[in-house]
Amino acid sequence: MVKRNKLEIIKDILIIIKENNTIRPTPLLRKANISSGRSVEYFNELIKKRFIEEKIDKDGNKFISLREKGLKFLEKYKTIIEFIDEFEL
What we know:
Elements: H1 6-20, E1 22-23, H2 25-32, H3 36-48, E2 52-56, E3 62-66, H4 68-86
Antiparallel strand pairs: 1-3, 2-3
Helix pairs in contact: 1-2, 1-4
């Protein structure tokens, strides 16, 4: 089994959020296959870089949603992967 690098994990997190529009943290952890300890690191970094945002509803439930910058990251990531594949790098 090949370990994912940081960019792949970030890409996976952002894609899952995009596919679900908004998602609660625990289902996101399961779908992205990351531990709760590691998720805090990734979530804090992605919030700080304004890729995602946390929202809290009236009942106090947390939800995570994708921001415009997160969508742009996914577009650029796809372009880079296509480039690498095209030139067999």
